[in-house]
Amino acid sequence: MAGQVKLGDFGFAVQLTKKNNKLRDLMGTPGYMAPELVAEKPYDTSVDIWSFGILLLELAEGKLPFEVDEPRDVLERIRAGPPRLQEPKKWSAPFKDFVTKCLVVEPTKRFTASQLLIHEFLTGA
Predict the structure, then answer these.
(1) Phi/psi at 23 (nearest 5 deg)?
(2) Domain that holds residue 64
(3) 7 assigned to some structural domain
(4) C-alpha–C-alpha distance, residues 118 and 125, integer Å
(5) For the chain, is the Cβ count within 10 Å smaller at the N or the C terminus?
(6) Which of 63, 15, 29, 43 is nearest to 105 (CA)?
(7) Strand partners, 23
């Protein structure tokens, strides 16, 4: 009633600690996997930001950006680079920038949840 949206996915949940702040498990739905997951590199919570960016594209366009018949093909497309909006002119500059900040290939350069919360797209809503 207050206009709040909450998303959750507990298919695979772990707690990262200061001592154990990276994971190596290859888990998840292929279309939402971050590049570091696909490359089987250690990862942290930044994979969730990537998945959120994929979800935003899916909500905006009505389909997953890497829809293909074979899951292996999805992984190859992820390795090739981040997806983009198919019709960028339909979307506001703040939305496009917000999605772009989520879908940065290098995880250390990807925005954090705290940075996204103060992004113009959310603060201007």
Answers:
(1) -120, 165
(2) 30-123
(3) no
(4) 11
(5) N
(6) 43
(7) 43
